[in-house]
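Notebook entry, structure prediction.
Reason for the run: the old model in the group folder had no record of what sequence produced it. Starting over properly, with the input documented here first.
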Amino acid sequence: MLMRRFRFNRLEDVSGTSGTGHVVEGVQFTDGTVALRWRGEHPSTATYASIDDAIWVHGHDGKTILEWIDP
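New structure, fully documented this time:
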């Protein structure tokens, strides 16, 4: 597997914190680990063991869509 870039497209901001639209830039590393870079007024970076873990935490029941940039 190669590294892959992605972004999160937030359709609804249920927490009132991160806004809507493209709120995260991310990369999935060759071992499956992902790094998220939150955009906006208060940017931050977080890592997760897998893309599934990141979606579980930040997906908000389908209100945040994972969009792969790289195939």
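Summary: Residues 51-58 form the longest helix (8 residues).
The old model has been moved to the deprecated folder.
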